[in-house]
Amino acid sequence: MKKFDYNTLFVPTYKREGAPVVKGKGVYLYDSDNTAFLDFGSGIAVNALGHSSPQLLKALREQGEKVLHTSNLYFSKPQIDLARQLLKSSFGDRIFFCNSGTEANEAAIKFARKKAKQVSPDKFHVLSFYDGFHGRTYGALSATAQGKFHSGFEPMLQGFHYAKLNDISGCKKLLKAHPFAAIIVEPLQGEGGIISATTEFLQFLRDFSDKNAITLIFDEIQCGMGRTGTLWNYQQHGVIPDIMTLAKPVGGGLPLGVVICKESVAEAIHPGDHGTTFGGNPLACALGTEVLKAVGKKKFLKDVTLNGEYLKRKLSELQTKYPVITAVRGSGLLLGVEFKEDPQGVIALCKDKKLLLVKAGHNTIRFMPPLIVTRKEIDKALGIFEKALKAHI
Ligand code: PLP
Known about the structure:
The chain has 393 residues and is an alpha/beta fold. The chain has 13 helices and 17 strands. A hairpin with a 2-residue loop joins strand 13 (325-331) and strand 14. The two termini are 35 Å apart. Pyridoxal-5'-phosphate is lined by residues 44, 100-102, 105, 133-135, 186, 190-191, 219, 221-222, 247.
């Protein structure tokens, strides 16, 4: 009997195939044929504690029995708890909760523009960087300097400008050409191909922003929350932003976005300026507190660092064996393997062999397993990856 094509049900925004996923446990996902897949994509850097984490399920049950939704007309206990913990663990003074990464960046851009308007009505320009990714709604999309995401959806919003990451002189020229409200940067670009900003570059952005009353926004939606071996990626550079945006792992698999900001940003915002019905949902926040509790532990972060170094070393060994690999880069458990050509064929071969990997940029495969991954699981994934490389060449 011909299998039903589920694609006919959906607006074709994704290219999907295969049996639907029905459950997950630890580092494994299972489809409706009960085939187990080693998940080295973590739902695009979301499932930090793996699938069906007992700690998260317990919090989910306990909070679920209390209250599922309150709106933001009232305080909720899970929001307060998570806000306190996030502020304690970062540079921030104030929090805004929303539902996703793109919403967090929308809020960040709006906050920065509101603050800048106090200086001058023309101070609304936003600088971002080629190959960065900030989301799909119009503000975040306008800040995403990749033509392929804009194509067909133009015009983008007014006042968005793009520079090359790590190019201080080019960036300086552009920054002097307009009155900027904000600079938004991923300290480690994820979707763009696992490309790190240099400390020197981030420090330049910090200094320029300080001198010119510009709000510096770090998008740590993919690289934050333990993914690179420190709780926040900015800690590896010693450069502190005015705003940091978070999402992906923060809600333990439930939709949650976060804007963490300094008081100097928050003081420009007044009741009614911005809002959301669902943002900071009690269930998502209850899980968020558990994720932060687990990931924030020294031993947990040390394991991410050591496992990341191990995986990176092994991938670099594969690079010397297989010239089709041109680079291995990244930090912690956010690693990229760059290929001479489009690696989609290698990703498909890995999936056939029950390893899930995700592409980044044009020619890079991302390795971003759940942060609880073990050496044994890393070795298993490496074995499958090498088999796929052999079959590919
Ligand atoms: N910012 C970064 C760095 C991301 O990687 C993503 C998603 O991949 C986003 C923003 C958008 O997040 P969301 O898909 O939750 O809107």
